[in-house]
Predict the structure.
Amino acid sequence: MTNEVNPSLDHKQDRNFDEVADHFANKVYGGLKGDIRLAVLRRDLLVRVEQKSEQLQRPLRILDIGAGLAQISTELASLGHELTINDISANMLAKAKAQLDPQYATNIQWLICPYQDLAEQLQGKYDVILCHALLEWLAEPKKLLEFSKDWLGDNGLLSLCFYNPASFVYRNLIMGNFNLLNNPNYRADNKKSLTPNHPVDKEEVFSWLDEFGFVIETVSGLRVFHDYSPLKRGGHNHPEEVLKMEVKYSNQEPFKWMGRYLHVLARAEKPYSQRKVKSLQGKRTKLYK
């Protein structure tokens, strides 16, 4: 399946990595950082997707919003699932296609547009929606969760990976960058910077998930210690050992909360409209008591 839509001129405040696609690929996935990210996501997601597919006795319909290089979603396509892969950047999706085994191309629909324009292109609900490292680049991040709720079927699964602003503070405390932390107006002004300008605290994200009828199943941290170790010693000199320890501690308390990114698997328990009606009914009951 092929359906390409050019990016619209709307949503200008949302980050587009079109001009720095090569830099993004090298910086994010060109080394151990990317290996850690993918290892934790695979551990969290692949088994859960397999369970859901067995439960429904069919391949799943999966939407990847802001997919970037789409490593996880193209892997899911290779397992026989039906993928819709979206990104605002044509260059990023071109790189994703270049790495795809042609035999799985028929399992994928490619949509190049802001996610806000997807509703005009999508048909039917999805079993799983992926939103990885997108929330923090949006001018209105809460709306992404509302959109995901609208396009997930009953008990659909949301895989949400987002930047953890607490990690920014902690890393700069370790590095002694106190002047930066004391500047509340700090924003990265380098166009190649991959430090988000609109990070959202986990408590706020969790409150949005609850508001839209999601139930959190699991939370993991991505890179819970690697980025905090400027001096490499002992096991840090062995990338394969770092990877094993990152995966081991990624879903353990309290270490997971120090991840540079947090990965949440959440289930769409019931439609938001039903939750809203139930809430209003509860308020009326209290008023008449």
